[in-house]
Structures are given as C-alpha cells and as structure tokens.
Amino acid sequence: MNAAPGSPAAETTPDLVDETRQQRLAVREGLAVGLATAAYGISFGALSVAAGLDIWQTCFISIVMFSGGSQFALVGVLAAGGVAAGPAAIASAALLGVRNGIYGLRTAPIVGSGLWRRVAAAWITIDESTAVALAQPTPRSRTVGFWVTGLAVFIGWNITTLLGALIGDAVGDTRAYGLDAAAAAAFVGLLWPRLKRMQAVAVAVAAAVVAATLTPVLMPGLPVLVAALVAVVVGLFNWLGAPTVPGRASLRHVPRP
Amino acid sequence: MTTWQIIIAASIAVLALKLAGYLVPPALLQKPTPARIADLLTVALLAALIAVQTLGSGQALAIDARIPAVIVAAGLFAIKTPFIVVVIVAALVAAGLRALT
Fold first, then answer.
1. Do B14 and B39 fall into the same domain?
2. Which residues of A touch B45 (CB under 8 A)?
3. Mean pLDDT of the residues in chain A
4. Residue B30 pLDDT more than 80?
5. In terms of Cα–Cα distance, which of A108, A86, A88 is closest to B18?
6. Is residue B79 classed exposed, middle or buried when 0-12, 13-18 and 19+ CB atoms within 10 A define those classes?
7. Is B57 helix (H, G, I), strand (E, B) or coil?
8. Inter-chain residue contact B47 with A175, CB threshold 8 Å
9. Which ipTM did the prediction report?
10. What's the domain count of chain B?
11. A161 pLDDT above the threshold of 80
12. 8 Å CB contact of B98 and A215
C-alpha cells in the first residue's frame, strides 16, 4: 500500500506484507471504534440540551473540549446546580481531563513531528485513540491507529452531538422521557470498563457514598469534588493496590472501548 | 458567571491538559503515583457523578424511577450491551415507571 515509488515487487518481503496488513487492521479498528463512539454522541447532545444549554453551546463543547467523561460531567453538574455550580462544573470537567494529559505522554512519541501536527494530536488524545494506538504491534501501525481513531471519533462525535442536540431540543420535557436516568446510565457506561481491579472498585464505592452523603449538605457540584479526594488518598498510599512497575502505570488501564 | 463563560473555561482547561501531556517532561508524570492518582481520579469522579445523578434532587436525596433504571443499565453493561442501547433502555425504564405511577 505504502511501498516506496519504483520499488520492484520482488522486494516485497514478508515483513513488508505483514506491515501493510497491520496498518490495514489499525485503520479498520480505528473506524470501528469511531463509529461505536459516535453513536453515544447522540446521548451527550440530548442531555446537554436537557441540562439547559443551547445547541451552539452543546456543539462548542464537543468541538473544543472533545472528551466524553468531562463533557458529561460538565452538563451533569450544570443540570443539578445551574450556573451557580459553574466553578464546580469546570473543576469536575478539568479533573476528569487529567487522564488525557497522562495519555499524551504515551502517544507523544508516535504522532509525528511539527507544531501543528502535535497540537492536532493533543486535541484528539482521548481514551479511544490512545487505546487503539497502543494496542497495535508496529510503530507505523500505532501512528495509523492513533490518527484514524482520533479523527474518526472527532468527526462522528461532533455530527452526532448536533443530532442529539436537535432531538433533545424537539423532545422538550426531558424528565418524562427518562433523560435524567439516561445521564446516570451514561456515567455507568464510562465507569464500567475501569472496574477491573479491587482498588478501583473500592474507590468507586467510597466515592459514591461520599458524594451521596454530602449532597444534602453542600451546594450542587461540590460533593463530586470532595469525593475525588478519595482517589487522591487511596492513590497516594496505594491502598489495596498491586506494586507498580515505574513507567508502566500510565499504560495499564486505558480502557478498551 | 454566564453559561458561555463556564463552557469556554472548562473547554480550555480540558484542552490545555491534553496539550500539557505533550509538553511536560515525561519523567515527571511517568512515576507510578501521579499516574495511579489520575487513573483513580477518573473512577472516583464517575462514581460520584453516578450517585448524584441517580439520587440527587437539587440539594436533597430522592428515591425514584432513576434507581431501577441505573440497576438495569449496570446489568446490561455487565453483559456487554452497546453503550447507546443501554442509555436508551435506561431512559425507557425510567419513563415507563413514571408513566405507570
């Protein structure tokens, strides 16, 4: 597929054939993940409008923020607390975005060079692009996997966000349609792939209890932030955790979409 | 703060964190502890958001149709049902229960 121009067919070694095949597989996996992820952009769009945001605001978030967990968190906190919960909403979205920064450390060597190329790569560094890229066996297929997945998700996610926002706008009374329950279910779906280890399960349960207990006491948005402290404490002392190999920690738990 | 200010500030913060991953020296964040905390932070925040989204009603706790909907959702994710299907079923469960009661 990408053989150098003029290279005779006789030089097509088994390695080269294998490399071409790996790249094709990376493209296929990236497109499949892009399609699957795009589907739930619909729910983000609808929930965002249900939270009181307009269609422009909803689309702006999907384009600029472009990170599912942070986006659902932002509109979730705004839905509960309105603009008064703004600082808590910003903090929740930002804290959920910290992991993308960690992914960037792993993807930085594989995206290619040049300022704009790297800015674009950072923009599309999310769970899905990182997971697909790091799952590929060769350096070239990792690069292909990263870009194809990131761009496929970016395009699909933004189209379906707009669709979802238009649907949500048309629906109106969101409670009667169970959209509040849909938001909770969306968070369950984002959390589920991360509950593979005892430590994560314990943190999840403790954080949920803390957030629920504090809800009647603190203003909307704050219980979620206080619950985040559970992660800091458990992570700092590595309670219930396995011994870690330095440098590998950031790789282990990228959830496969 | 206006809604737009909140949206822009949050969007820039999340984008800046992504860029930071490409700028900071890898040695700093590749240590196991910061990586583990970032990882668990995601888990804690999502779990807390589930609790608030399922039980919260403004500044009170309420037991309503959202709870069975979330339990159904968790069961469906456990058997690897696609995300969008689960979200729609959860909405239908809550809407159905509300229509009946």
1. no
2. 69, 73, 92, 95-96, 207, 224, 227-228, 231
3. 87
4. no
5. A108
6. exposed
7. strand
8. no
9. 0.92
10. 2
11. yes
12. no
Residue A66 and residue A48 in contact, taking contact as beta carbons nearer than 8 Å: no
How many angstroms separate the CA of residue A205 from the nearest CA in chain B? 7
At residue A254, the pLDDT reads 58
3-state secondary structure of B56: strand
- Answer yes or no: do B73 and B61 share one domain: yes
CB contact under 8 A, A180 and B22: no
Give the model's confidence band at A85: pLDDT under 50 very low, under 70 low, under 90 confident, else very high: very high
**Of A213, A171, A244, A165, the residue nearest B52 (C-alpha):** A213
Q: Which tokens is A159 given?
A: 């189209």
pTM, whole model, 2 decimals? 0.84
Q: How far is A156 from chain B (nearest CA, A)?
A: 14
Q: Both tokens of residue A208? A: 């949920």
Same domain for B59 and B21?
Answer: no
More confident residue, A56 or B87: A56
To which residue do tokens 């993308």 refer?
Answer: A100
With a cut of 90, say whether residue B31 has pLDDT above it.
no
Distance from CA of B44 to the nearest CA of A (A): 5
| pLDDT band for position A141 (cuts 50, 70, 90) | very high
Regarding whether B82 and B49 lie in a shared domain, the answer is yes
Whether residues B46 and B75 fall in one domain: yes
Q: Is the pLDDT of residue A199 over 90?
A: yes
Among the partner residues A72, A99, A238, nearest to B38 by beta-carbon distance: A99
Q: List, for residues A51-72, the tens digit of each pLDDT value.
A: 999 999 999 999 999 999 999 9
> Same domain for B38 and B83?
yes
Chain B hits for A53, Cβ within 8 Å: 3, 7
Containing structural domain, residue B9: 1-28
Whether the CB-CB separation of A221 and A92 falls below 8 Å is answered with yes
Quote the minimal CA–CA distance from A71 to chain B in Å.
Answer: 9
Is residue B62 less than 8 Å (CB to CB) from chain A?
no
Nearest CA in chain B to A100: B18
